Structure formats: C-alpha cells, structure tokens
Amino acid sequence: MLSRKPTRIELKREDLEEYEKAKKLWEKDIKKSVNDEAKGTPPSQVLDTPERLARIHERIGYNPQIVPSDGNISLS
Description:
Blueprint: H1 13-39, H2 43-47, H3 50-60
C-alpha cells in the first residue's frame, strides 16, 4: 500500500465566522429548550423542530431529493 503525506487543512476567516454563527444558534436553542422544559414541554419535542432540523441539514450538506424511478434497474 502506498502512503501519502497528510492533507493540510486551512482554517479561513469565513469558516470562523460561520462557526460563531452556528454556535450562537446552538446556544439559543439550548436556552430555549431549558425554558420550555421548565414550562413542562418534553425536551424531545423541543429539539426536533423543523427549523432546527433544517439548520442541521444545511450545516452538514444533507439535501434529500427523491429520485424518480421507472422500475428498470441498470447496474452497468
């Protein structure tokens, strides 16, 4: 097996800004969940809101799209 040199990862200013923005949103969600939990709302309902899931999908690059199929499977 051939080994290669480690890949260099560069941290850019935009990456730091995006991280800080995501961190603020995450802290806001935590505070909201603590407040809602104090009111009696179950935490699982608070954390699985569509807005929160949309932000998570955007952050990780998940974009589910249904691929139409005509029933023919081609493996070549």
